[in-house]
Amino acid sequence: MTTIKSVKVEIITIGDEILIGQIVDTNSAWMATELNTAGFELAQITSVHDDANHIIEALEMALKRADVVLFTGGIGPTNDDITKQTLCSYFDTKLVFNDAVYQNIERLFANRPNYKMNELTKAQAMVPEKCTVIQNEVGTAPVTWFDKAGKVVVSMPGVPYEMKRAMSVEIIPRLQKQFETPVIIHKTVQVYGYTESALALKIAEWESNLPEYTHLAYLPNSGVVKLRLSGFLENVLALEFVMNQQMDLLSQLLGNAIVAAEDIPIEQLLGNLLMVGGKTVSTAESCTGGNIAHVFTSLPGSSAFFKGSVVAYANEVKENVLQVNSADIEIFGAVSQQVVEQMAVGVRKLLKTDVAIATSGIAGPTGGSDEKPIGTTWIAVCSDEQVLSREFRFGKLREQNILRATQAALLLLKEIV
Amino acid sequence: MTTIKSVKVEIITIGDEILIGQIVDTNSAWMATELNTAGFELAQITSVHDDANHIIEALEMALKRADVVLFTGGIGPTNDDITKQTLCSYFDTKLVFNDAVYQNIERLFANRPNYKMNELTKAQAMVPEKCTVIQNEVGTAPVTWFDKAGKVVVSMPGVPYEMKRAMSVEIIPRLQKQFETPVIIHKTVQVYGYTESALALKIAEWESNLPEYTHLAYLPNSGVVKLRLSGFLENVLALEFVMNQQMDLLSQLLGNAIVAAEDIPIEQLLGNLLMVGGKTVSTAESCTGGNIAHVFTSLPGSSAFFKGSVVAYANEVKENVLQVNSADIEIFGAVSQQVVEQMAVGVRKLLKTDVAIATSGIAGPTGGSDEKPIGTTWIAVCSDEQVLSREFRFGKLREQNILRATQAALLLLKEIV
């Protein structure tokens, strides 16, 4: 089987916002996913300030490694944006007036009667002479496309929806015409109950026998490790066959430790299972403090299976609202099997759901003891038929304990739905 | 007044996750903010794959421009992680066994009886001979620190909480000892009720008169805009004086729109106010789905003021648990002043707290109407003396609506505590 040479792309983001921590660079993650799906390999992301020398240096380095360089940002109307001038000087050309761009700007302003075009906006219609100008229907700054010795340099806006439209509608289709890309297939499984290293040992032999046109990535997240196998080949059917074969072998190796055979959040997986079964869920949360409810309700359409929660942070809420026996809290403590099971049963009854989850643990940074150190967490799930509970020891960090307890609770619920 | 030369830092992130779009690089934004606050200038962020040649090239380029290079990621126990070996070869040294690292790993595993140490984990105790090893108390991979001709190269884990601890407790304090950074003073106010651009117009004249050794950043976050004024000067007293003067002028301009005169999360501000007043709070959440409870309980020590919540996603939970009148839900709808006020009063009574918050809104992506479009949200707060409620129109994006409603609810509560 033959592989074809991958087409390498680099992204250069321009502007202060990312470098002073003002914004998180979500553009690059989106672009990375799209490029990857379209069969391109993203080789580097570089973020630099609005500084001409630094921009040129980054571009020259990128062109040494990659076939395509995509600039985002730095092309707004204000003085600090210098990318257009910098590219003009790099490609030895000058700015000229472009009537189509000007008409696009006029059209955009006609739609927004509260805003007036000013001279800075008009200047957006000045574009490099030696480039392909691609209209930006949703913003004033056009996309500019430069060809140079078989390589491509594109400059596009940094505003997310302008960038996304330009990439989807114009840039990726044009790149796919110009370059021959291999087929890429990704297969993901999510594994629970192993540390990253224990998992690596468990599957070492399988991993070492993977074909050379595949790549395996370990992606740990709050107790769950995602294993993603990527394959690159010319023949899509052959690749699909080999990838499925490898994933079958992996499934045999890991068995029940595989909690999901696709790349979706665990809460979405649970939501799907509940909806398919026509079941509803409620939660009684102490240490997770509402986070399980929050991850469920972050899913669009979650009202189809999620009815509500009682966040029982104070013991009196556990007693008065969830009907936990106060003597049991006294004798066994709030972080105990007895209490967490009563919480689950109590909330299921109160909110009239098919199944319920309860958590009680010591999130930290204080409250631990020798017997129950910080991170000790009891989780229970119940249905009309059974109550299932388990003790966990997470770490010392509050934020991490909340996230891990949330994942563990969802996965425990999976055992009964 | 004289300024001193800035100390330049670059970040290099290593690993596939960012370059295939699997994760958004939130680490770099956090690091950028912290470095900036500590007086360093972040000159470039570079993301590369686990590829030795590419890593070395990125390092060499960064060392030409910057005084400090910070690597994150690529130091896990699995085969794809090669940063440690790559740095060994670059700094012409070899891996040696480090007993302190080994003991740290043993300690971490002793706390997690479900997991066993294996040979890959043990290999984490192999560290480059010519470097300063900094213990990582919360993970198995240590931080390694290399000095080279007055410049510094540090390699740290990419796991966010491990990275954050290493940066805050070890790396930034050590860098501040080693390099002379200018005095930087930051003053932050948090402003509510303005868009970023409306705020920019409101304070345009004040902003244009700021001294040239200051820099103003707009940091919008779910409806609140943080204005951070940074000043760089040799003389700390002079700087402090000028900064205070400017912030006084800003306060006069913005008045009550300033909801906090310091850079702390709004939930922490509320927690402090409640604790000072000896008051407790509960929440009844529909559209926010437990997120207000979650942000409160993410604060260490929140059990001192937060007793619990009822997440009332289904209407029957509003009726049965919070005693909302079912006729009112029928007549006015669940997203209405009548219902949200009853939810607040109901949860305050049920959980026996001094004050309470309630939310009910249409988070989207479905459920909107002409009269109540997606984003319509009612929020109520109450005490034993009063009930205060307000209607908001957020946007079309579910995630953003949940975050904005959370912020708005906290700020409404601030009006009565």
How would the blueprint of this fold be written?
Two copies of one chain form a homodimer.
Chain A: E1 7-14, H1 16-19, H2 26-37, E2 40-48, H3 52-65, E3 68-72, H4 83-90, E4 95-97, H5 99-110, H6 119-122, E5 126-128, E6 132-134, E7 143-148, E8 151-156, H7 160-178, E9 183-192, H8 196-202, H9 204-208, E10 214-221, E11 224-233, H10 236-254, E12 258-260, H11 266-276, E13 281-285, H12 291-297, E14 306-312, H13 315-320, H14 326-332, H15 337-351, E15 355-361, E16 376-382, E17 387-393, H16 398-414
Parallel strand pairs in A: 1-2, 1-3, 3-8, 13-14, 13-15
Antiparallel strand pairs in A: 4-5, 6-7, 7-8, 9-11, 9-12, 10-11, 15-16, 16-17
Helix pairs in contact in A: 2-7, 3-4, 11-16
Structure overview:
- Two copies of one chain form a homodimer.
- Chain A is of the alpha/beta class.
- Chain A is built from 16 helices and 17 strands.
- Chain A has helices spanning 16-19, 26-37, 52-65, 83-90, 99-110, 119-122, 160-178, 196-202, 204-208, 236-254, 266-276, 291-297, 315-320, 326-332, 337-351, 398-414; strands at residues 7-14, 40-48, 68-72, 95-97, 126-128, 132-134, 143-148, 151-156, 183-192, 214-221, 224-233, 258-260, 281-285, 306-312, 355-361, 376-382, 387-393.
- In chain A, the strands form four sheets. Chain A has a six-stranded mixed sheet with strand order 2-1-3-8-7-6, sandwiched between helices. The first copy, chain A, has a five-stranded mixed sheet with strand order 14-13-15-16-17, sandwiched between helices.
- The longest helix of chain A has 19 residues, at 160-178.
- The mean pLDDT of chain A is 92.
- The interface between A and B is large, with 92 and 91 residues.
- Strand 2 (40-48) of chain A pairs antiparallel with strand 2 (40-48) of chain B, so a sheet runs across the interface.
